[in-house]
Amino acid sequence: MAVVQKGSLVTMHYIGTFPDGEEFESSYGKEPIVFRVGNNEIIPGLELAVLGMEVGEKKDVAVPPELGYGEYRDSLVVEVEKEKIPDLEVEIGDRLELDGEDGESIIMTVIEMTDTIITLDANHDLAGEILNFAIEIVEIK
User: Fold this and answer.
1) Which range has the top average pLDDT, 53-57, 81-85, 100-104?
2) So where are the chain's domains?
3) pTM of the entire structure?
């Protein structure tokens, strides 16, 4: 029977939960995710967890921030003067796609607002979190 190794094309179902049990994402009821091991298409903690697994095998894994979406970094929180973002109606919680210095787009979340300043956070929503995943291997190619 095939086992997952570097280079395998893996089809996997998963349920992601926080340590308190709250679910933040699930592929059940939708299409499972498909990724090639070693191509950095999913977080490192899940890539490592699937190695050696077989079709039909299930596993629970806790992924620390350094193998997930990284530590929360205060340096990724910036304050912008409202006048620099003209004609933009934003509310706390809105996600903005802005151009970074290298030309790549950056998704930032509005986390605070005053009459003159908008505070934006470029950390991933799950940065700094320990993430639990219940994974199930559906197919290996």
Assistant:
1) 53-57
2) 9-70+126-140, 74-121
3) 0.84
CATH 2.40.10.330 fits 74-121, yes or no: yes
The whole-angstrom distance between residue 115's C-alpha and the CA centroid of its chain comes to 32
CA angle 123, 50, 35 (to 5 degrees): 65
Q: 4: which DSSP letter?
A: -
Quote the Cα angle for 67-53-11, to 5°: 80
Q: Please give the CATH number for the structural domain made up of 9-70+126-140.
A: 3.10.50.40
Classify residue 74 by burial, with Cβ atoms within 10 Å: 0-12, 13-18, 19+: exposed
Report how far apart, in Å, the C-alpha atoms of 6 and of each of 48, 50, 68, 103 are.
10, 10, 19, 31
Of the candidates 80, 76, 71, the one whose C-alpha atom is nearest the C-alpha of residue 129 is: 71
Strands (E), the chain: 9-17, 23-26, 33-36, 58-63, 77-81, 95-99, 105-113, 117-121, 131-140
Q: Does residue 83 surpass a pLDDT of 90? A: no
> How many residues make up the chain in this entry?
141
Are 119 and 138 in contact by the 8 Å Cβ rule? The answer is no
